[in-house]
Write a structure and sequence with these properties.
- The chain is α/β, with parallel strands linked by helices and 137 residues long.
- Helix content is 54%, strand content 23%.
- It is built from 5 helices and 4 strands, in the order βαβαβαβαα.
- The protein has a 4-stranded parallel sheet with strand order 2-1-3-4, sandwiched between helices.
- Strand 3, helix 3 and strand 4 form a beta-alpha-beta unit.
- Helix 1 packs across helix 5 and helix 2 runs parallel beside helix 3.
- It is globular, with a radius of gyration of 14 Å.
Length: 137
C-alpha cells in the first residue's frame, strides 16, 4: 500500500502532530508513506493533483489546520480546500481522505489530533475497496 500525504505548514505546531499520527498509523498498517508539505490549506489540492498524476499512490491524505479568525477568509479556505480535495478524488478516481481540520480555536484543533491517524485508516480502507471493486469488474 502506497500512501501520499500532503500537509499544510500553516499552524505547524498542530499540523505537525497530525502528520506524526498519520505516519505512525501508516507504519502500523504497513503502508509506505510519502509526505510533502505545502504552505497552507489552499495549496493542498494542487499538490494532491500532482501526486495523483504520478500514478505512484494507492490513496492520498490531506492534512491541515484552519482556525477561524476575524474575517470571512476562514470560510473561503475551508470551503475551497475541501472542494479542491474532492475535485481531485473524483477526477482521478483515487481515494483521498480529507484530514483538514476546520475549528473555532486551537483548543478544538488540539482535541482532534487523532484525525491524522484516522485519515490514514480511511485512505487505506478506501484503497482496498477500490482494489476489490476493480477485481470484480
Amino acid at each position: 500500500m502506497r500512501l501520499g500525504i500532503v500537509a499544510s505548514r500553516f499552524n505547524q505546531a498542530i499540523c505537525g502532530k497530525l502528520v506524526d499520527g498519520a505516519r505512525a498509523e501508516a507504519h502500523k498498517l504497513k503502508a509506505e508513506c510519502t509526505v510533502i508539505s505545502v504552505p497552507g490549506a489552499l495549496e493542498i489540492p494542487i499538490a494532491l493533483q500532482w501526486m495523483a498524476q504520478s500514478g505512484r499512490f494507492d490513496a492520498l491524505v490531506a492534512l491541515g489546520v484552519v482556525i477561524r479568525g476575524d474575517t470571512y477568509h476562514f470560510e473561503v479556505v475551508c470551503n475551497e480546500s475541501a472542494r479542491g480535495v474532492m475535485d481531485v478524488a473524483l477526477e482521478f478516481g483515487l481515494p483521498i481522505a480529507n484530514g483538514i481540520l476546520t475549528t473555532q480555536d486551537e483548543a478544538q484543533a488540539n482535541a482532534r489530533l487523532d484525525k491524522g491517524a484516522e485519515a490514514v485508516r480511511v485512505a487505506v480502507e478506501m484503497a482496498k475497496l477500490r482494489g476489490s471493486a476493480h477485481e470484480n469488474r
